[in-house]
Design brief:
Layout (H helix, E strand, L loop, with lengths): L2 H31 L27 E8 L4 H9 L1 H9 L3 E2 L2 E9 L6 H4 L7 H7 L1
Length: 132
Amino acid sequence: MNIKDAIVDNFIIILVAIVAILCIIVYVYYKYMKPKLSPTYVPNKEFVDTNNTNAPSQKPKAHVMLFTASWCPYCRKLKDEGTFSKFKSENQGKIINNYELDIQEIDCSNDHDSNINGVHHPEDLASLIGVL
């Protein structure tokens, strides 16, 4: 084998490698990138209602809850300063990212109160733990 044949063989190998890389790039583009360029693309499908249970005029709700206790010094300070009351008055019912804010303050001073224990269903606790 002479040098000319070796150069041609290396050129063919390099050419095949370049074609293979271009094919992979085109595949990745059409499989992963092009769908994201669509105007109907939703990056987090967790909050997409696939059952269409919400009426067109009804917005899904995002719940913001402040759990307080009368014995908690931080909660008392928050109430005295009026921070959460001001936030609630300015944002209650506001539409943000197509979600209507539902803001509530829940006093958890009496943990034997059935209303407090029933605020969250047990299956919702996993989502609360994720937020904390």
